[in-house]
Write a structure and sequence with these properties.
alpha+beta, Lipocalin, 2 domains, eight-stranded antiparallel β-barrel, two-stranded antiparallel sheet, 39% strand
């Protein structure tokens, strides 16, 4: 019985702490689709731009972000995220190439020195390389792999506890 209670306590601990681990991850997943291209990248949910990358009331820049284009090998890009004062949206730059230059909603809350990205789906108008205003969709989500891992570990431990009770000849009531 002590063993079962210990395993049960461990399961409760894992379930309660999984939310904390997921929040500690603090990573947002970005997927932007426009003009037949899909760009994916990850950023901290609340990035910390350096002082030379903050434009109060206007925008902030995040340099050196790994971006995958159409599922290819990630390459370093730079992002500018704009406030509604500048029509919202973002720019993606690879050196001199600007494959995405969008206007849309503001994608963050807070001031540009301490922004927090907003989770959701955003319709953007892209004036990127073609400069013709094609529609685009940006999805910002929060992946929680640590929660799934902890849930799986809890299920395995629970099944092991049930198995050991049966092996000891203890009755398992449903």
């Amino acid at each position: 019985m002590k063993k079962f209670l210990g395993i049960f306590a461990l399961l409760i601990f894992l379930a309660l702490s999984s939310a904390n681990f997921a929040m500690a991850d603090g990573i947002d997943q970005f997927t932007y689709t426009a003009g037949g291209n899909t760009f994916t990248w990850q950023l901290p949910a609340s990035p910390s731009p350096t002082s030379d990358n903050i434009y109060p009331g206007v925008a902030f820049t995040i340099p050196d972000v790994l971006v995958s284009v159409n599922g290819g090998t990630p390459q370093l890009g730079s992002f500018d995220f704009y406030s509604t004062m500048c029509s919202g949206g973002f720019d993606l730059t690879f050196g001199d190439n600007v494959p995405a230059n969008t206007i849309g909603q503001q994608l963050y809350t807070g001031w540009e020195g301490t922004p927090t990205f907003i989770i959701g789906t955003f319709l953007e108008t892209d004036y990127g390389p073609s400069d013709n205003g094609i529609p685009g969709t940006l999805v910002i989500s929060t992946p929680e792999p640590s929660s799934l891992l902890l849930l799986a570990a809890g299920v395995v431990l629970f099944l092991l506890a049930l198995r050991s009770k049966k092996a000891l000849g203890l009755s398992v009531q449903s």
